[in-house]
Design a protein that fits this description.
Number of strands: 0
Number of helices: 8
Helix content: 40-55%
Radius of gyration: 37 Å
Mean pLDDT: 79
Low-confidence stretches: 32-45
Distance between the termini: 126 Å
Strand content: under 5%
Structural class: mainly alpha
Largest sheet: none
Order of helices and strands: HHHHHHHH
């Protein structure tokens, strides 16, 4: 092996040592610069803290059939709602509220997913159907994705109900919370019960 070959391998070895040293130094530098804690802390809401929003009964109470008629424009490509109207791609919807699911329009070929669902078109069932037809009746042939806005669904149901149906609206349940300092009926104020007990003891002692 001549001198030039020795020199070449010497430089190669030297370069390898330099590269190894730089790698070790850089890893230490980046470790020192890395933060010990993340820059952002995302706090997820605990269970029970999510605001569920107005109930279905509240949305219906505050809704309107007039607004529902506007929402129904999205349904007109497949449905009619006139009394005696013809079935289209979807069944005629006149008088649908309160009737049997998958069996209200004579002559219409419902999907087995809907006809075998069972039950009636209650407010709750219709709300679930309008929100996501596929989730309500898996396998339905209805291609509509659904209405994500709860108020739109409530308004649309009011419009359906105003056309041949007369389903009573669900009752709005109002939760009444006791105000601070308000006592339950028959409950004595703090201190009065103890004062009454002291008075009874004094009377017994006097009688003795």
């Amino acid at each position: 092996m001549n001198d030039s070959t020795n020199t070449f391998f010497g430089w190669v070895l030297f370069a390898g040592v330099i590269a190894l040293g730089l790698s070790a130094i850089s890893s230490r530098v980046f470790d020192l610069q890395s933060p010990e804690t993340p820059g952002y802390i995302i706090e997820a809401a605990e269970a029970g803290e999510v605001d569920a929003g107005p109930s279905l009964a509240e949305l219906l109470a505050g809704g309107s059939a007039e607004s529902g008629q506007t929402v129904f424009a999205k349904c007109m490509a497949c449905h009619s709602i006139e009394n005696g109207g013809a079935n289209n791609i979807g069944p005629n919807l006149y008088g649908i509220m309160g009737l049997e699911i998958g069996n209200h329009a004579p002559g219409f070929a419902y999907s087995s997913a809907l006809s075998s669902k069972g039950g009636d078109w209650t407010w709750e069932n219709m709300d679930a159907w309008l929100k996501s037809p596929r989730a309500f009746a898996n396998g339905t042939t209805m291609s509509f994705a659904g209405l994500g806005d709860g108020q739109d669904r409530a308004d649309l149901m009011l419009y359906l109900n105003a056309n041949g149906s007369d389903l009573p609206l669900p009752e709005v349940v109002v939760e009444e919370a006791a105000e601070d300092g308000e006592m339950a009926e028959g409950e004595a104020p703090e201190g009065e019960e103890a004062a009454g007990e002291d008075t009874a003891v004094e009377e017994e002692a006097a009688a003795a």
